[in-house]
């Protein structure tokens, strides 16, 4: 990306970590805990640990490439270095872009659904897309305001979200006597090796957001050093948060109760300490998580598309808009995401985003190692 397209050195290490964890620690952590537990059985905290280790090895490729070629639009840059200015590089980057935009729409609708939990209102089906589009517009305005504003907002959201989850998890563990008996008492909870591996595979997706950091690239201060540090710090923070949630939930609920509680498993686990306030707390944390995740995702996608345009791998039209290519791509990103969030219930194709990501990740590693 050309120098005038981005704000070189405008993101601190802390701001970059905050954006990375913003994508990684989303509202999905509450639902993902139950899904991983359903596959992995009482060993589901171990599934998160193994997923973090696997993600660490995967991150090595991104770190080394970003250290050598720091770039805003990092994934597109890695693909271009691995495959050259070819169709496979452009198609793979667009695959990643599609998965992220689909996820943005889902996250925005999740924000709407959680927000309405705080109010006793009718016509929720109508209000959810309205709130979803409103959040996407807000993310656009924050991104337009510049990288310093993005970094500051991301840091505040990260402190509130991560601090809140750790506090809530700690209180739940304290109320349960720091035991892990409830999730492993029943003999029928024992899972098969295949089931455990399926749980690990699902847990890996909880760490996939670290790739967002590579799209900060040259906008990070001292990128050759700090991009790698930001990725490792983000993975470590996420592991601590995921493990704390897993042990907190497992200390109070059986596997059946964890799966049944779905998005509110942590709230149900905290009832001995907080009662019904746990549900309200979970909703507030989920609102912060979805908002910060969308903000960071919009930032990353706009950078990647701008890089693809700069590489002449995809066409571009200004449509009379002022500003640079990155700003134009920001507009295109939010328009597509808002349209999907407003008119489509993407629940049925949500898994496509994960599939697109995994395919793209395999293509990147194959290209770098060959």
TrEMBL record:
<dbReference type="InterPro" id="IPR050367">
    <property type="entry name" value="APC_superfamily"/>
</dbReference>
<feature type="transmembrane region" description="Helical">
    <location>
        <begin position="126"/>
        <end position="146"/>
    </location>
</feature>
<feature type="transmembrane region" description="Helical">
    <location>
        <begin position="190"/>
        <end position="210"/>
    </location>
</feature>
<feature type="transmembrane region" description="Helical">
    <location>
        <begin position="44"/>
        <end position="63"/>
    </location>
</feature>
<keyword id="KW-1003">Cell membrane</keyword>
<feature type="transmembrane region" description="Helical">
    <location>
        <begin position="273"/>
        <end position="306"/>
    </location>
</feature>
<feature type="transmembrane region" description="Helical">
    <location>
        <begin position="158"/>
        <end position="178"/>
    </location>
</feature>
<keyword id="KW-0472">Membrane</keyword>
<keyword id="KW-0812">Transmembrane</keyword>
<dbReference type="GO" id="GO:0022857">
    <property type="term" value="F:transmembrane transporter activity"/>
</dbReference>
<feature type="transmembrane region" description="Helical">
    <location>
        <begin position="231"/>
        <end position="253"/>
    </location>
</feature>
<keyword id="KW-1133">Transmembrane helix</keyword>
<feature type="transmembrane region" description="Helical">
    <location>
        <begin position="350"/>
        <end position="369"/>
    </location>
</feature>
<feature type="transmembrane region" description="Helical">
    <location>
        <begin position="12"/>
        <end position="32"/>
    </location>
</feature>
<dbReference type="GO" id="GO:0005886">
    <property type="term" value="C:plasma membrane"/>
</dbReference>
<protein>
    <submittedName>
        <fullName>Amino acid permease</fullName>
    </submittedName>
</protein>
<dbReference type="Pfam" id="PF13520">
    <property type="entry name" value="AA_permease_2"/>
</dbReference>
<dbReference type="InterPro" id="IPR002293">
    <property type="entry name" value="AA/rel_permease1"/>
</dbReference>
<feature type="transmembrane region" description="Helical">
    <location>
        <begin position="83"/>
        <end position="102"/>
    </location>
</feature>
<feature type="transmembrane region" description="Helical">
    <location>
        <begin position="327"/>
        <end position="344"/>
    </location>
</feature>
């Amino acid at each position: 990306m050309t120098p005038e397209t981005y704000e070189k050195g405008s993101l601190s290490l802390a701001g970059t970590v905050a954006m990375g964890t913003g994508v990684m620690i989303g509202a999905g952590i509450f639902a993902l805990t139950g899904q991983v537990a359903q596959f992995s059985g009482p060993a589901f905290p171990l599934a998160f640990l193994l997923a973090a280790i696997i993600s660490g090895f995967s991150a090595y490729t991104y770190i080394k490439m970003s250290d050598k070629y720091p770039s805003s639009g990092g994934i597109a840059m890695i693909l271009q270095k691995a495959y050259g200015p070819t169709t496979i590089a452009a198609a793979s980057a667009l695959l990643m872009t599609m998965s992220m935009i689909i996820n943005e729409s889902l996250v925005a609708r999740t924000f709407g659904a959680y927000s309405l939990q705080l109010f006793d209102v009718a016509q929720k089906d109508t209000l959810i897309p309205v709130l979803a589009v409103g959040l996407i517009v807000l993310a656009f305005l924050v991104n337009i305001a510049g990288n310093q504003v993005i970094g500051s907002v991301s840091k505040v959201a990260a402190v509130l979200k991560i601090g809140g989850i750790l506090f809530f998890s700690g209180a739940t563990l304290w109320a349960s006597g720091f035991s892990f008996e409830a999730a492993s008492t029943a003999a029928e909870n024992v899972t098969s090796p295949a089931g455990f591996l399926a749980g690990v595979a699902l847990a890996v997706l909880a760490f996939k957001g670290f790739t967002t950091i590579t799209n900060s690239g040259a906008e990070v201060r001292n990128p050759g050093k700090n991009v790698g540090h930001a990725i490792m710090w983000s993975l470590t923070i996420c592991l601590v948060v995921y493990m704390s949630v897993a042990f907190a939930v497992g200390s109070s609920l059986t596997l059946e109760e964890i799966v049944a509680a779905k998005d509110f498993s942590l709230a149900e686990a905290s009832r001995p300490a907080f009662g019904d306030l746990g549900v309200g707390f979970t909703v507030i944390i989920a609102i912060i998580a979805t908002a910060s995740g969308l903000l960071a995702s919009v930032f990353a996608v706009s950078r990647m598309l701008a890089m693809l345009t700069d590489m002449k791998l995809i066409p571009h039209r200004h449509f009379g808009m002022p500003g640079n290519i990155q700003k134009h791509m920001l507009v295109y990103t939010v328009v597509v995401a808002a349209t999907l969030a407003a008119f489509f219930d993407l629940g049925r194709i949500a898994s496509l985003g994960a599939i697109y990501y995994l395919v793209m990740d395999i293509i990147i590693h194959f290209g770098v190692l060959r």
